[in-house]
Amino acid sequence: MSGNDFRIEHRYLELPDSFYTRVQPSPLKDAKMVCFNHKLAEQMGFRADSESDWTGVGAGSELLEGMDPVAMKYTGHQFGAYNPELGDGRGLLLWETVGPDGRRWDWHLKGAGMTPYSRFGDGRAVLRSTVREYLCSEAMHGLGIPTTRGLFMVSAKDPVRRESIETAAALVRVAETHIRFGHFEFAAHHEGPEFVKTLLEHVISLHFPHLVNLPDDERYSRWFEEVVERTARTIADWQAVGFCHGVMNSDNMSIIGDTFDYGPFAFLDDFDAGYISNHTDQGGRYAYNRQPQVGFENCRYLATALLPVMEEDDVRRGLRRYEVAYNERFLQNMRDKLGLAIEDKADLSLIMDTFSMMHEHHIDYTAFFRALSNLHSHGHGPVRDLFVDRSVADQWLERYEERLLNESRAHDEREYAMRRVNPKYVLRNYLAQQVIQEAQNGDYEPTKALLKVLERPYDEQPENDAYAALPPDWGKHLNISCSS
Ligand code: AMP
Ligand code: MG
């Protein structure tokens, strides 16, 4: 671990001590490095000449000088019910570093063993879920969607009981912050207004520095508007790439709008508006088409926690930003995906009809928009091939081609832009499943190969065509367990 060019800080420890408990990680046995994100490390200001130097940190058997691990306390609403017992039950905040570009990074060791907030859990993470989280955070980053990141992960021999016996792993997850909506709920519902204020000032000064010098009331209201807007935009980005989070509890909502806590997530294969990626979510509370509304409900939980320190009118005004920000971003995303640069009043109905058509005919979401991004270079064939009933495709294409007549960009220019927003490669569940099986057999190369492809999801990468293939029969509608 040479060439460190970062500053060590641990500003979370400046919060009142009810916000955390110091906990030492419980070491894992025979840990091996699975993969290490060298590019990210470089951005954070260090180089890992030898990956294995970091295995001990991942295994929880080694702390670097300055690391002072704590389990964070937060609460939150899970499936609509308030749970006061939450907190880092298997993750520890190791320290915070500030890189050469001034960016701040929380280092969080997920799978580090039990903490006072473990409740019935064992404090561990299994290899399957660790690989999924690492892959998906890097896939989202590649797509340009705000997200926590995967710095490195290790795999160990310790058995972990889930639906069956699996093996333990740990992930060093990094993000500008790990503070969640649930931190504010904890402060408001258990500690009192002074704690909410302290947390607010902490978050503003570290993560919203442009607001620091505003007068008190304006600072809080502008901050809340921003949090609401960021949340809405991230979710609009999810909808546009067909991402289902799966567990949108308010303790899984990042205060800076990152996609946070990857569990039973999924990217849609064939489009299904009501798709439920989490098999324990029987009511479909977090189904794909409910995500925008749930994002708003989570902002309302946050709003409630802010009422003791903010004017009610300001809170209401902040909440109203959600719908505006969401609609604006979603419409823009969809216009970009369809390659529509000149605004037309009828575009919204074209977009909605496109979703209905894809839903009704089970059209592969990613493949459809990618094929559309090559419509004039490759012809109608690749789009039509996604339909069982070609006449449906022809009808839709006729309407679309007519709409394109209003556009002024040349076909190749439009399609180039479309390929920058319509990924060829997303983390389809079956792809994750394949590399997980190999990883469970001790071969991490397929995971690394998939990561490399997902780093550049918008590039053609003809040598990697196989990763863009539609799911095989066994890989459709995989049932993803919440137990991670
Ligand atoms: P999640 O569904 O992963 O967002 O976790 C919800 C809550 O359960 C958080 O407080 C986690 O820290 C905790 N938790 C999840 N899995 C475990 C586990 N295996 N051991 C202890 N706590 C856990
Ligand atoms: Mg969580």
TrEMBL record:
UniProt record similarity statement: Belongs to the SELO family.
Annotated InterPro entries: SelO
Keyword hit for Glycoprotein: no
Binding annotation for Mg(2+): 252, 261
Organism listed in the record: Marinobacter maroccanus
Cofactor: Mg(2+); Mn(2+)
Lineage, opening ranks: Bacteria, Pseudomonadati, Pseudomonadota, Gammaproteobacteria, Pseudomonadales
Protein name per Swiss-Prot or TrEMBL: Protein nucleotidyltransferase YdiU
Record's function text: Nucleotidyltransferase involved in the post-translational modification of proteins. It can catalyze the addition of adenosine monophosphate (AMP) or uridine monophosphate (UMP) to a protein, resulting in modifications known as AMPylation and UMPylation.
EC number: 2.7.7.-, 2.7.7.108
GO molecular function annotation: AMPylase activity; ATP binding; magnesium ion binding; manganese ion binding
Active site: 251
Keyword flag Metal-binding: yes
NCBIfam families tied to this protein: PRK00029.1
Binding site residues for ATP: 87, 89-90, 110, 122-123, 173, 180, 261
PANTHER family for this protein: PROTEIN ADENYLYLTRANSFERASE SELO, MITOCHONDRIAL
Reactions performed catalytically: L-seryl-[protein] + ATP = 3-O-(5'-adenylyl)-L-seryl-[protein] + diphosphate; L-histidyl-[protein] + UTP = N(tele)-(5'-uridylyl)-L-histidyl-[protein] + diphosphate; L-tyrosyl-[protein] + ATP = O-(5'-adenylyl)-L-tyrosyl-[protein] + diphosphate; L-seryl-[protein] + UTP = O-(5'-uridylyl)-L-seryl-[protein] + diphosphate
Keywords for the protein's UniProt record, in alphabetical order: ATP-binding, Magnesium, Manganese, Metal-binding, Nucleotide-binding, Nucleotidyltransferase, Transferase
